[in-house]
Every structure is written in C-alpha cells, then in structure tokens.
Amino acid sequence: MRRLFFSSWLCLLAAGSASLNVFESSAALLAAAEAGDVAAAKAALQAGAPLEKAATHEGANALHLAAGAGHSDLVEALLAAGAAVDAAAGRLDGPTALYLAAQNGHTAVVDLLLRAGASVEGPPTLPGPLYIAAQGGHAATVRALLAAGARSDRPDKSGSCVLHVAAQQGRREAVAVLLAAGAEVERANAVGARALHLAADAGHAGVVRDLLQAGAEVDARLQGYDDAPTALMSAAHKGDLRLVRTLLAGGASTEAASPGGFTPLSVAVQEGHAPVVAALLAAGARPSAPCAQKGATPLLFAAGMGRVDLVGLLLDAGARVEEADNEGWTPLHAAASGHLPVVRLLLRHGASPRLLTRAGVSPVSLAKAAGAAEVFQLLSSLAAADIVQPETEKSRFRMDFSPPSLERSEL
Predict the structure, then answer these.
(1) What pLDDT digit, counting tens, does each position of 194-207 carry?
(2) Are 156 and 163 in contact (CB under 8 A)?
(3) What are the angstrom distances between the C-alpha of 319 and each of 281, 282, 322?
(4) Is the pTM of this model over 0.90?
C-alpha cells in the first residue's frame, strides 16, 4: 500500500514537471521568435514546445511573431518544422502570418510564405494582405502579392479597394504599382468617392497627378451625387495651392460650380486664400461670375470682407467694379461700412458713390449708419446731387452688410 502511494506521488510529480517543461519551452520558443533566434527556437522545440499551441495572450504563435518581425530565416525554419502557414492569430478569423508580414512590408517573408502555400487573400473578415500592404506604402510587397494573384478590387467594409486606401494615404509608389497592374482608376467606394477624390481631399498632389495621368476624370463628382464639389472646388476651399495648380494643369474646369453657383474662385475668395485666387484667375477663371442663385460676385464678397488684396487681384483681372446683385448692392456698398482701403481702391477704379440699391440705400448712408467716419467723409465729398439707380435685370440675392439692427427703411 505504501509502495502504491509512493508510485502515485512520483507520477504526479512527473506530470507537474512535464507541464512546467512545456510552459518553459513554450515561453522560450516565443521569445526566440520575437528575437529571430533560430538556434534558440530549435532548442525550444526539441525541449517539447508545441509549435502551434505555444502562443501569446493575443493568440500569436511563433510563426506569427517571426513573420511580423521580418525574421525570414526563422520563418523558413518554422515552416520546415511543420508550422501551419495559414493559421490565424487569436481567433479563427484573425490575421495570418502573411497578413502580418505584409502589414510591416517584409517582402522576403511574404515570398517565403507564398511559396509555402499561404492564401494570398487571407481571412474574409479582414482586409487582404494586399490592402494592408498598400495602406502602409510597401510597394515591393504590393508588387509581390499582385504577382501571386492578389485581387486589387477586393473591397473593405466601406467599399474602398486597394487603390482607394493607397491614394488616401498618399502612398505614391504603391499607387504606381497598382496602376501599372491595371487597378481601376475610376472605381468608386460605397459613398461614391473615387481615388482622385480621396487623394485630393487628403492633399496628396503627387498622387493626384499620377491618377490624372492614368486617366482619372479631373472634374468628376462623387458617383451618384451631381451636386457634390469637384476636386478643384475642395482644393480651393482648403487653400491648397499646390493641389490647385496640379488640378489646373490636369485640365480642371475653373467654372464647375456648386448647386448654389459657387465656383472655385468664389469659394477661394470667401475663404480668403489670395494665392489660390491668383492661380485661378491666371488659369482663366471669370472674375465677375455671379453665383447662379444668389447673384453675388467674387468682388462683392471680397469687398464685404475688407480684403483689399483680393479686391486688387479681381480688379486687375477685369472684374466689373459696379456689378450689382439682385437688389442692387455693389462692391462699394459692401465696403462702405468701414473698409476704407477697399473703398479707396474701388473709387480709383471708377466705382460711383451715387448708386442706390433697389431699396434706396446709398454707400454714403451705409457709412453713416455704421459710424465709419472716414468712409462717410470721403464718399460724401464725392457724391453728387443726382442719385443713380443701378441698371440690372438680373435675379440676384442681396448681400446684407448693414448692422443687423438697422432697417433698410431707416437708411
């Protein structure tokens, strides 16, 4: 009886010792995988480390760790020892070794895994290895995956494909590889955005240039949204001069307007981007083009903002100094509430202080109501006895630059 009890105790000790050895050898294997130590990994396997079951808390085994770190010699050794090439890390639909290698741009490891039979598309619940490589800008890895048959048109959950993500991230080399492989340049994502829209919105002028050279439509709007802004309108709004010049060089229309009739020039003026305004005017943008629905010209906007630099650019480009909106407001009316430098510049270009709006408001009365003493004095001295009603039959929107508390009838 005593002998049986002693034997059972020895068996329990042996089992505990074996479990301890497995734990220690597994830890040694994972440490070797992270460090890329081939000899230490082989020693851990010989000591009983389970090749597949030894894993981190996140579920990554030795092959995942070695592939993600780019240890090609160790990856080759683990594959030779029987590591499952398409095993998922952490869960059934987790990343594979190929995905992790592609994510970090380890092309040599990607080649090894592909030769060992790794699935080039990876688990269906994740973006493919090609997508993740393009997102990171790993052009050589992108090229290797394409050569192995990876699909460049595979979308992610938002409908974005590989070219979309590369363009949006500004990965110019990856974009070039994808375009050379035949990626569809005009393909739209779930919200109708093409690669050109995504690159332009992110300010990647170089990628925009490459996409245009590959045949992207420069004035395309979001697919299914005819009232969406063009890339040039977005660039003008942001004041991105380099991108504006790139789009203009690619043939972008300076007159493509929003549903409210705002052209890229109107937008750039309202946002105060003088260099962009100059570039658009040099490219032939019409300086007096009114908004289709509101009737305000870029000069009217600039004058009302008190931007003498923008007013000067527009006048030098031929903007009509007395172009009025639908209620007869001219740039001088807009500036009369206190923008003295603009008022002087408009007067030098022939603006009349005698013109009335359709409600009977003169620039003089606006200056007086606003308490703009210098403007009032200047305009009063120039105003003649006869008041001229502006001649315009256009249906336009009044730009209200008077104080909110002031009624038109009081002027």
Answers:
(1) 999 999 999 999 99
(2) no
(3) 10, 13, 9
(4) no
